[in-house]
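Quick one, C-alpha cells below. Sequence please?
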C-alpha cells in the first residue's frame, strides 16, 4: 500500500481537470523515457506538461505521487491489452494461445521498455493490482483448459507462471532489451511455460 505522501491530493472531476492530470502524467512518462528518474522533479514535469507548478500540486503533493499515478495507469494499460488478447485466444489451440499471449507481452515490453526501466529505477515495482488481474485471468484460462494440462492447482500455477514470465520478460526488458528481439525468444519462453504446465 502506498504511503499517504505518495497519494494524489484529489481526483479530477471535470474534463478540464482530467486533461491537466493527463498532461502531467504524459509529461512524466516522456521525461522518464528520455532521461530516466534521476533528473525528474515536479518543476520539470510541470514545465513539460505546460501547466503551473500550482496546478500540479493541486493534484499531486510530490513527485512520488505523480510516479504512483503513472505506475497505476501504465499497469491498467498493460492489463487491458493482455486481457483483450487472452479473451481472443481463449478458444485457440493451447500452444498457439500461449505463443500468442507471450508474443503480445514481449511486444508490450518492447514498446514500453524505457518507461518500465525508469519506473522500476524510481524505486517501486509496477502496479501490483494489474499483476493480480492478469494472474486471475490466467487462472481462469488454466481452469478452462485443465483437460490439456497436467494435474495442478490453477491458483498456485498462475502465481508461479506469472512470476516466471515476469522474471524472464520484464527482466530482459530492464537488463537486456535486445534479447526480446531475438527470433527465438518467444519460442523459448513459450516452451518454458508449456513445459511447466505439462502441456
Amino acid at each position: 500500500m502506498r504511503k499517504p505522501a505518495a497519494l494524489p491530493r484529489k481526483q479530477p472531476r471535470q474534463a478540464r481537470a482530467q486533461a491537466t492530470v493527463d498532461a502531467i502524467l504524459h509529461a512524466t512518462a516522456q521525461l522518464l523515457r528520455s532521461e530516466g528518474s534521476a533528473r525528474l522533479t515536479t518543476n520539470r514535469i510541470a514545465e513539460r506538461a505546460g501547466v503551473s507548478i500550482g496546478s500540479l500540486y493541486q493534484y499531486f503533493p510530490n513527485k512520488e505521487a505523480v510516479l504512483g499515478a503513472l505506475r497505476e495507469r501504465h499497469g491498467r494499460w498493460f492489463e487491458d491489452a493482455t486481457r483483450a488478447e487472452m479473451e481472443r485466444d481463449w478458444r485457440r489451440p493451447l500452444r498457439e494461445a500461449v505463443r500468442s499471449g507471450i508474443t503480445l507481452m514481449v511486444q508490450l515490453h518492447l514498446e514500453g521498455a524505457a518507461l518500465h526501466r525508469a519506473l522500476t529505477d524510481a524505486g517501486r515495482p509496477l502496479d501490483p493490482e494489474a499483476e493480480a488481474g492478469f494472474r486471475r485471468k490466467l487462472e481462469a484460462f488454466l481452469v478452462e483448459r485443465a483437460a490439456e494440462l497436467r494435474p495442478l492447482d490453477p491458483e498456485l500455477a498462475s502465481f508461479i507462471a506469472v512470476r516466471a514470465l515476469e522474471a524472464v520478460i520484464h527482466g530482459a526488458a530492464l537488463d537486456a532489451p535486445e534479447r526480446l528481439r531475438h527470433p527465438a525468444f518467444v519460442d523459448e519462453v513459450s516452451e518454458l511455460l508449456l513445459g511447466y504446465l505439462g502441456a
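Confidence is low (pLDDT under 50) at residues 1-5. The first helix runs from residue 15 to 35.
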